[in-house]
Give the backbone structure.
Amino acid sequence: MNNNEGPEVLIAEEDIRKRVAAFADQISRDYAGKGKLVLVGVLKGAFILLADLSRRLTIPHRVEFIAVSSYGKSSVSTGAVRLIMDLREDIDNKHVLIVEDIVDTGHTLHYLLSLLKARSPASLRTCALVRKSERAQIDVSIDYLGFDVPDVWVVGYGLDYAEQYRTLPYIGILHPREEAKHTPTPGDGC
Ligand code: IMP
Ligand code: MG
């Protein structure tokens, strides 16, 4: 599926749906009988993945959000991660799964892992739909990974470029030509 208007399809809607269903099955098996899992969605990009994943889980869980910013005013990571909004609930002795849209340099996930690890969860794991492995600067472990993508700017299924394209049902590649059509309003890179 592609259309003449939108970004070129990299990962089709159906492939995302199958992968998220597979995550949900795996996570439901891995955490069965362990009490209530805490899903920590990283705003803003993970909101769609979190919504789809949480509705497919067959185990008791609760949903929390955290917001960080890593990119400042450009689409190039500075490596400096800021906490914009913290969790509302304590996670000590809880099984926690961080749900991220994309792991690029790895700085954001690395920051979140050390932040949350310090709060003594019973366990702490990570789930990311997409990883740009060529761009890794820090080695972070992703326990549930959807897809590896090349070093391109991807949008859709929660991922944005200057707050656009988040609601595309597929993951597409934003080519420089299309970027040029939009004035890159400073975003938080969330
Ligand atoms: P990292 O700290 O470099 O791993 O960056 C992670 C964050 O940057 C992600 O959570 C996204 O919010 C954002 N990001 C990185 N690459 C992309 C992309 O290709 N499209 C949209 N957002 C991205
Ligand atoms: Mg993100």
